[in-house]
């Protein structure tokens, strides 16, 4: 009959060995540096309109950080980023200085607000759909600073595409 304690000890030893091997492998030669040279070849400016339709505060905060990182990454690759973020859908409820009682307790709200400020400071333009704010009960006068209220976020996204901006849907 197998004894559980030695079996658990063997499993722990095996996991420790795999963890040590993984750590050693990651401490080896420097990780490769990736770039977007093929996509950015010959480009001076990268124009993107991010249509953001996310209804979860934590996920919204995470994706706004990704957009910020993309902006920085493009600039590091010597292409001037020209980004516009257009917010539509239920996530607009997280983009106000006076959130409703049902979302006010979310710890991600501060993260969202801080990242919106970082985007604004980086020169990324942001717009919020007034159709969505009306649907979600958000007072347009209380939208986070740096976000412009527009009539219709879909129309805005279409207009930017007509101006040569690449559409990046973020759901």
- Give the proportion of residues in helices: 40-55%
Largest sheet: 5 strands, parallel
Task: Note the total helix count.
Answer: 7
- Spatial strand order of the main sheet: 4-3-2-1-5
CATH architecture: 3-Layer(aba) Sandwich
Name the average pLDDT.
Answer: 88
CATH domain class: Alpha Beta
The CATH topology is given as Hypothetical Protein Ychn, Chain: A
Helix and strand element order:
HHEHEHHEHEHE
Stretches where pLDDT is under 50 for at least 5 consecutive residues are: 1-26
- Principal-axes geometry comes out as globular
Q: What structural class do you assign from the helix and strand content?
A: alpha/beta
Instruction: Calculate Rg over CA atoms.
Output: 22 Å
Strand percent estimate: 15-25%
Question: Can you tell me the number of structural domains?
Answer: 1
Care to count the β-strands? 5
What's the CATH superfamily, by name? Answer: DsrEFH-like
Please report the distance between the alpha carbons of the first and last residues: 53 Å
InterPro entries: DsrEFH-like (IPR027396), Sulphur_relay_DsrE/F-like (IPR003787)
Keywords: Signal
Pfam family, one: DsrE
Signal peptide: 1-22
Question: Would you kindly provide a written description of the structure presented here, covering whatever features stand out?
Answer:
This protein has helices at residues 4-26, 37-40, 57-76, 101-104, 108-121, 130-136, 153-162; strands at residues 45-52, 80-87, 125-129, 147-150, 166-170. It is 48% helix and 18% strand. The model is unreliable at 1-26 (pLDDT under 50). The protein has one domain (44-170): DsrEFH-like (Hypothetical Protein Ychn, Chain: A), CATH 3.40.1260.10.
């Amino acid at each position: 009959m197998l004894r559980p304690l030695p079996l658990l000890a063997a499993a722990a030893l095996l996991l420790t060995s795999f963890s040590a091997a993984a750590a050693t492998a990651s401490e080896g030669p420097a990780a490769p540096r990736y770039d977007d040279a093929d996509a950015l070849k010959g480009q001076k400016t990268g124009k993107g309109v991010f249509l953001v339709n996310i209804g979860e505060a934590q996920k919204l905060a995470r994706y706004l950080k990704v957009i910020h990182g993309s902006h920085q990454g493009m600039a590091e690759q010597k292409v001037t980023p020209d980004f516009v973020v257009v917010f539509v859908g239920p996530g607009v409820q997280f983009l106000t200085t006076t959130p409703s009682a049902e979302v006010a307790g979310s710890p991600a709200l501060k993260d969202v607000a801080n990242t919106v400020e970082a985007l604004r400071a980086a020169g990324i333009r942001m717009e919020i759909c007034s159709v969505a704010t009306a649907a979600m009960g958000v007072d347009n006068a209380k939208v986070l600073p740096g976000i412009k209220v527009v009539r219709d976020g879909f129309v805005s996204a279409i207009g930017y595409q007509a101006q040569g901006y690449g559409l990046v849907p973020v759901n």
